[in-house]
Amino acid sequence: MDSTMDAALGRWALELAGRGWPVLPLRPGAKFPDWHRGDRCPGTGQCRGGHRTPEQIATTDPDLITAAWSRAPWNVGVFPGPAGLLIIDCDPAKPGPDELDGWTALQVLAEQRGGPLPDTFTVTTPRGGRHLYYRAPAGCALRSTQGHLAAAVDTRGWGGYAVAPGSVRADGAYELLDDTDPVELPGWLVQANVEHCVTAGSGRGDRAVAVPGAFAATAVRGECGKVAATPYKQGRNKALSRAAYALGQLVGADVLAEDVARTELRAAVDSWGDVASIAKDYAVIETSLRAGRHNPRRITPHSTRTAGTRRHSAASPRKDTVAWTNG
Q: Which Pfam families does the entry mention (predicted)?
């Protein structure tokens, strides 16, 4: 990476911060924050009073930004939650003859919902995806989602971040496609982003579950409460895997809708505020839910005993370095 590109990255960081959008350095040539996970917090620098997440330390301060990008060719991460934005991430199509890319799937959803899908600030990704920046309606705190709107369509709100224009990877660059100021998120997209699916396919008759009964609701609160309350350095992956497996068993037993379990588990993960691990944590949820679903819990009217929980280990965490503002 030459000095001209290095300087361009710093200018992008300053421009986005000037719009009031907090930014944070991402590793050069990559899309991960240069920051540590909560379970590896050194308790120094920015974290002297307790672990702080990338979202909490992202900044619009031009002096901090200038100093940081003068030291290394960081890519740029933008944090939509504190900026009052929601970013819709349209991915390329997954392998398969009938799979739609995210941009096409979002347009189809707009037609089904009656639209509109207005032009807004848009960034293209190296693999042909798009990031659409919208202003979140006043008083509406929208969190990040994965595949909730449509296949290959994620959102980045509170608890998430996006790679900003100007950033580069080995496979290409994030480029500004439309510099229209972000427009307000249409009402139909607000509704689609927050509504929950209320049916679950059990694989054994596909019986619809409108809302969890008292037994299932208690289980969801208990398991997700344990996940949210797990301290930084005390086996979060294990706690999440065990909770998702236990709820997956209830899904397999036809007493809990899978989308309800998934949504509540993700909310518990989001409460950790550990942006760098969200994708991995969501993957743990999917793997463990699926495993539990294939080993449904046996439930009788007189039994409230919990079935044994099979333990699953998540992939080894990435070795992060201490970030730009630490010290």
A: Prim-Pol
State yes or no: cis peptide before 82, omega within 30 of 0.
no
Contact at 8 Å (CB) between 46 and 325?
yes
Q: Do 144 and 264 lie in a common domain?
A: no
Lowest mean pLDDT among 127-131, 147-151, 261-265, 322-326: 322-326
Residues 187, 281, single domain; the answer is no
Number of folded domains in the chain?
A: 2
Task: Determine, yes or no, domain membership for 325.
Answer: no
Pick from 146, 178, 194: which residue ends a domain?
194
Task: Evaluate whether residue 326 is within a structural domain.
Answer: no
Which of the two residues, 263 and 17, has the higher pLDDT score? 17
Written as six digits, the tokens of 14 are: 């300053």
- Structural domain containing residue 85: 3-194
Among 2-16, 87-101, 119-133, 190-204, name the most confident range.
119-133
Which residues contact residue 62 at a Cβ distance below 8 angstroms, ignoring those fewer than 6 apart?
A: 14, 17, 18
Contacts with 125 (C-beta within 8 Å, 6 or more apart), sequence order:
131, 163, 172, 174
Higher pLDDT, 78 or 258: 78
Q: Write out pLDDT tens, residues 174-204.
A: 999 999 999 999 999 988 887 544 333 334 4
Residue of 104, 14, 22 lying closest to 59 (CA atoms): 22
Question: Which of 313, 145, 307, 147 is closest to 223 using CA atoms?
Answer: 307
Nearest to 265 by CA among 286, 251, 250: 286
Q: Is 305 exposed, middle or buried (0-12, 13-18, 19+ CB in 10 A)?
A: exposed
**Of 194, 212, 234, the domain-final residue:** 194
